Amino acid sequence: MTLQAKIQSLVQLGAAFSRILNETASTDSLTSAEKNVQQWLSRAVHHNGWYTEEMLRFCLQGWSENFTVEKLEHWLTKYAITENQSPKRIGLILAGNVPLVGFHDILCVWLSGNHALIKRSSSDQQLTTAVVQLLESITPDFANAYTFVEEKLTDFDAVIATGSDNSARYFEYYFRNKPNIIRKNRNGIAVLSGEETAEDLAGLATDIFTYFGLGCRNVSKIYLPQKYDMAHFYQGIYHRSDVLQLEKYCNNYDYNKAVFMMSNRQIYDNGFLILVEDESFSSPIAAVFYEFYTDLSELQSQLNAKADQIQCLVSNLPLSGAIPFGTTQKPELWDYADGIDTIEFLLKID
């Protein structure tokens, strides 16, 4: 199957997502595979309490917007991808912290002409399965490009594993003799100037609360100028108090607030998000860490030294790699996790 044919298949997948998300359209116009995905939009929360229908719709909308000819060709034309006569077997150990978090890896393996051995996370198993089957219904040849693995991974040529810092130590040892990409904990951070508009802060709220802060691209740490007015920040994000509608979020908010208070930590609190001064990047759910800075160039040096802990950075300030507020959960297809080019890695496997 040619690369151009695969691109057209993904364009059709994007169109299928749009039909699934169209609440005014009749379900009679959907294929059985599309109906299966649509059903999981409302049912997934019963298998994973964080997977609300709103978040799943946000996820599919993002994929739909990425699956255009222009974006796909912009992403893929720089690679020397040919029809692979000797496909490699690539083990994929997927995370499940946010919806379809491993789908990009699955696509990279297929687009590079290899075979994916997919070990799904129990947290995201049903949705990943439904979307993979939807792509297969559009492109029957895709059935030959993947295998779902229930037991231990065996007979593989390379592996891409995503997990925590703790699981990464195990992965690095177990897969040490194979080409691999091992992903660890990373976080999104924000650097504020104090001059942010209401629109900027609304975007920052999206960066913090989408997927309830569970993703590696969620902002979990903010840097503030000295004497920053916390009331300005809280006013800008107050419209996201709707996160309290999810019981799991409320439970985490109550628990983490109690832990901070029992530890005599000074906190700011607006009833649904806790701000805590801390040098770490990875804050618990319903909390964001903050630090003050005085010199921007000095802060840039600090961030450079900790680059392996940062997934993305949002700011209006002239900082290396900064992206606009509100975009952390809308990565482009070429925004590779941890900055490692997955397709380039796959094409170089001997």
From TrEMBL:
<dbReference type="Pfam" id="PF05893">
    <property type="entry name" value="LuxC"/>
</dbReference>
<dbReference type="InterPro" id="IPR016161">
    <property type="entry name" value="Ald_DH/histidinol_DH"/>
</dbReference>
<dbReference type="GO" id="GO:0003995">
    <property type="term" value="F:acyl-CoA dehydrogenase activity"/>
</dbReference>
<dbReference type="InterPro" id="IPR008670">
    <property type="entry name" value="CoA_reduct_LuxC"/>
</dbReference>
<dbReference type="GO" id="GO:0008218">
    <property type="term" value="P:bioluminescence"/>
</dbReference>
<protein>
    <submittedName>
        <fullName>Acyl-CoA reductase</fullName>
    </submittedName>
</protein>
<keyword id="KW-0521">NADP</keyword>
